Amino acid sequence: MSRIKTILLWVMAVLYMFAGYNHLMNPAFYVAIMPPKLPNPEWLNVISGLAEIVLGVFILEPRVRVLAAWGLIALLIAVLPANVYVAMENVGSDGPGSGNAMANYIRLPFQAVFILWAWWYTRPDAEGTV
């Protein structure tokens, strides 16, 4: 694996582990941005936080890296409705209407970037890269 790909792997892993930890330490923020039609937002927050931590760790292990990368892609797709809800309803930490509309919309395309970033680790490395 190239040096840059390895560095970005570690950056991604740390970001997911930190995000998962933040889900568990600051649940009110994440519960506030969940679409109201979703059942048990507190549990969904815990599940997504734990998934981020576990997948962030597993992405570092070569034997399960591809599976972990697909898990991150699935997780990112699963949380996409919440991100769309945040943008459409301008959701902030105090609920709908309390967010930063510009930031909420700018944030949406980053889901695709994060999906592509994880997808990169599902692909075999080219032979002889440094």
Task: Give short descriptive properties of this protein.
about 130 residues; mainly alpha; about 70% helix
Model description:
It is a single chain. The mean pLDDT is 91. Strands 1-2 form a two-stranded antiparallel sheet. The protein starts with a helix and ends in a 10-residue tail after the last helix. The chain has one domain. It contains five helices and two strands, in the order H-H-H-H-E-E-H. Helix 1 (3-25) packs antiparallel against helix 3 (41-58) and helix 4 packs antiparallel against helix 5 (101-120). The protein is mostly helical and 130 residues long.
- Structural Rg: 16 Å
Strands of the widest sheet, in order across it, are 1-2
Per the principal axes of the C-alpha atoms, what is the gross shape?
A: globular
Identify low-pLDDT runs. none
Question: What number is the mean pLDDT?
Answer: 91
Count all strands and give the number: 2
Estimate the helix proportion, in percent: over 70%
Give the oligomer, counting copies of the same chain as homo and different chains as hetero. single chain
Which sequence of SSEs, written as H and E, runs from N to C? Answer: HHHHEEH
* Global structural class: mainly alpha
Query: How many angstroms separate the termini?
Result: 7 Å
Largest sheet: 2 strands, antiparallel
Number of helices: 5
Q: What is the strand content?
A: under 5%
Compute the number of structural domains: 1
